[in-house]
């Protein structure tokens, strides 16, 4: 699955290029608990089609009810207070102000969120934005609240959404990427989970017998040596590299190259003993130090007592998502620490 923001913006662009009226909704403020974070977006077409999400579904339904003729003809809609998508400057709408409204819209107790609605965003600006994102660029999008005028600029780093009295500033980035070394069964499960989590997945395995059995069509499969693939992949801050072959000839050099990059996660499968042996090899034969290997994760995953490839993949994906989202996991869920404590007991 692609990056959700890119999917939303691409569909919105297509609606507008086809001459259809549409709006873009962005979560700009939240109070208490909310189902979607600030910066989440969705697009609504005049025919009631919707893509993206700003809640668990009830708010989307209300926006459809308010701004389209999807459920009734124009006369009936006007009689019940519904209207077509308006024109002009962006507007705000708030949900969950009262306990009854929060319950009605499926918001957690005390939850309130506010949306900015942009009516009929410019098709040419959307085309340019999608083109930049598809080329791998990070883009800052600024919306003037007085008239809806949009400007785009390259961004050096992702930033949180900013809202002032004059403008909304949001950063859109290319999709997250995952490079997996080895095309075994565990890789198939992990690749599948990564794809539906919004990662673009590349799998590297020079062993023909493993590539021949690969079954996850949406992942790109390459056959070059892993260290060469890492260099060609050019991992950045939105990339992770995971070695899954258990073969030092394939894993070690790829991991060493990955550690030279800005990848947010670099790790390898294996037992505590194998992980220790990997560190010792890299220090003895490649001149690494404990400091230079500090970013190398292993054994990877969080401890959930997993034994099967599917469960191990869940464990690894959970850790990758926690690191991606900046969540510091308790030390007692790290595989090595949890197993050490179990054996000590």
Outline the structure in words.
The chain has 345 residues and is an alpha/beta fold. It folds into 2 domains: 4-123, no CATH class; 176-344, Rossmann fold (3-Layer(aba) Sandwich). 36% of the residues lie in helices and 22% in strands. The chain has helices at 4-17, 58-67, 74-79, 99-104, 123-134, 185-196, 208-211, 226-233, 248-259, 272-286, 309-324, 335-344; strands spanning 22-31, 41-45, 50-52, 91-95, 112-119, 139-144, 150-154, 162-163, 167-172, 176-181, 199-204, 220-222, 239-243, 265-268, 296-297. It has a 6-stranded parallel β-sheet with strand order 12-11-10-13-14-15, sandwiched between helices. Helix 10 links the parallel strand 14 (265-268) and strand 15. The longest helix has 16 residues, at 309-324. The relative contact order is 0.09.
């Amino acid at each position: 699955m692609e990056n959700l923001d890119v999917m939303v913006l691409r569909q919105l662009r297509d609606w507008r290029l086809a001459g259809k009226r549409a709006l873009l909704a962005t979560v700009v403020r939240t109070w208490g608990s909310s189902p979607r974070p600030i910066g989440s977006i969705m697009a609504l077409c005049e025919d009631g089609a919707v893509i993206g999400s700003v809640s668990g579904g009830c708010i989307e339904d209300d926006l459809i009810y308010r701004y389209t003729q999807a459920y009734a003809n124009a006369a009936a809609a006007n009689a019940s207070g519904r209207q077509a998508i308006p024109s002009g400057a962006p507007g705000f709408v708030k949900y969950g102000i009262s306990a009854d409204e929060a319950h009605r819209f499926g918001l957690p107790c005390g939850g309130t969120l506010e949306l900015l609605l942009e009516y009929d965003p410019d098709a040419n600006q959307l085309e340019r934005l999608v083109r930049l994102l598809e080329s791998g660029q990070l883009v800052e999008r600024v919306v003037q609240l007085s008239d809806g005028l949009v400007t785009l600029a390259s961004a050096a780093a992702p930033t949180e959404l900013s809202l002032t009295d004059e403008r909304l500033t949001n950063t859109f980035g290319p999709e997250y990427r995952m490079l997996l070394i080895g095309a075994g069964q565990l890789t198939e499960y992990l690749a599948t989970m990564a794809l539906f989590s919004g990662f673009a997945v590349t799998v590297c395995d020079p062993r023909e017998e493993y590539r021949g059995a690969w079954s996850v069509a949406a992942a790109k499969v390459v056959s070059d040596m892993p260290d060469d693939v890492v260099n060609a992949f050019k991992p950045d801050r939105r990339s992770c590299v995971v070695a899954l072959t258990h073969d030092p000839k394939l894993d070690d050099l790829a991991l060493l190259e990955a550690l030279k990059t800005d990848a947010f996660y670099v790790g390898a499968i294996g037992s505590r003993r194998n992980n220790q042996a990997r560190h010792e090899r890299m220090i003895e034969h490649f001149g690494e130090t404990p400091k230079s290997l500090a970013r190398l994760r292993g054994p990877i995953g969080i401890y959930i007592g997993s034994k099967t490839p599917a469960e191990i993949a869940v464990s690894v994906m959970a850790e990758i998502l926690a690191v991606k989202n900046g969540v510091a996991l308790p030390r007692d869920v790290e595989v090595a620490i949890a197993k050490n404590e179990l054996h000590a007991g």
